[in-house]
Specification:
GO terms for molecular function: acyltransferase activity, transferring groups other than amino-acyl groups. Pfam families: Acetyltransf_1. The chain is an alpha+beta fold. 31% of the residues lie in helices and 29% in strands. Strands 1, 2, 3, 4, 5, 6, 7, 8, 9, 10, 11 and 12 form a twelve-stranded mixed sheet that branches. Strand 1 and strand 2 form a beta hairpin. Helix 4 packs antiparallel against helix 5. 35% of the residues are buried.
Length: 274
């Protein structure tokens, strides 16, 4: 896998050419910015910004005017005004290779709060090491209804120690309106949910995204995370996808690297609350 070419493909297909990620969501390009507007429990934010390295001045490094007219501070202010007008908190999803290089500082100065930095990792499915096995007595069950969603939410709240009502709404919406775009699974040990994860499939692209992989404390370190990654990878391959994408935390990154995922850049959520 060519990291530079793959990152460029990721930007084109999932950011600049983004599709709505759920029912009621709308993606639109406004000047240099690609943003998504969704219901309150959905994801609202900026996916892509075609800004350049001198965006504060509107000029190129060599002194001439920038024909794209990309002004970072102006673009930031416009998105704040738009989402504030909708009374929506929103996220500016910033990647390590985005320009200008001080865009994160500009976002903070405008009132955004940065979240934890993660690593964008991509794996080319044919090259991944997917031999992970489940612990004895554990099985993976597909999630197709409200009862299954409740199990996923239960695991998520225990694993990440936070309210996951947003996840319940989002999964129920996707399963009802577009079941072919989401794969949710739960690992059961004697009927008890001990690990869960989901995969979001983006039609018309070569990428499937892995999200929300979490395991309750008592079952960590037994290979469940690896097994759920392998399970979702096989499902994605069967549906014609070539790449898996993960925003990896510090704990997940070494596991994913051992499976064959490659770190390409960083990603940081900058959140603005009206």
């Amino acid at each position: 896998m060519d990291p530079s070419a793959t990152l460029a493909l990721f930007d084109r297909e999932l950011r600049e050419g983004a599709r709505p990620d759920g029912p009621g969501a709308r993606v639109e390009r406004v000047g240099p910015v690609v943003r998504q507007t969704a219901p309150r429990h959905g994801w609202n934010g900026v996916l892509w910004s075609g800004l350049n390295g001198t965006a504060g001045t509107g000029e190129r490094d060599e002194g001439g005017p920038d024909p794209r007219g990309t002004d970072a501070d102006g673009a930031i202010a416009a998105q704040i005004a738009y989402f504030t007008g909708l009374d929506r908190a929103f996220e500016w999803k910033l990647y390590g290779h985005d320009l200008p290089v001080d865009l994160g500082q500009r976002l903070v100065a405008a009132g955004f709060t940065p979240g934890p930095e993660e690593t964008l990792m991509i794996g080319e499915i044919p090259g991944l090491r997917l031999g992970a096995e489940l612990p004895e007595g554990v099985r993976i069950a597909p999630v197709t209804d409200r009862a299954g969603v409740d199990l996923v939410v239960d695991v998520h709240e225990k694993a990440f120690r936070g309210d996951a009502s947003w996840l319940r709404h989002r999964l129920l919406d996707r399963l009802a309106a577009a079941p072919g775009t989401v794969v949710a699974v739960v690992a059961l040990a004697g009927g008890e949910p001990v690990s869960a994860a989901r995969m979001e499939l983006v039609p018309g692209t070569r990428f499937a995204g892995l999200w929300g992989g979490g395991t309750v404390d008592a079952w960590r370190g037994r290979g469940l995370y690896r097994a759920l990654v392998a399970h979702r990878a096989r499902v994605a391959a069967g549906r014609g996808y070539r790449y898996l994408q993960v925003d990896a935390s510090g704990g997940s990154r070494p596991i994913l690297e051992r499976l064959g995922f490659v770190p390409l850049t960083t990603t940081t959520p900058y959140v603005y609350v009206p």
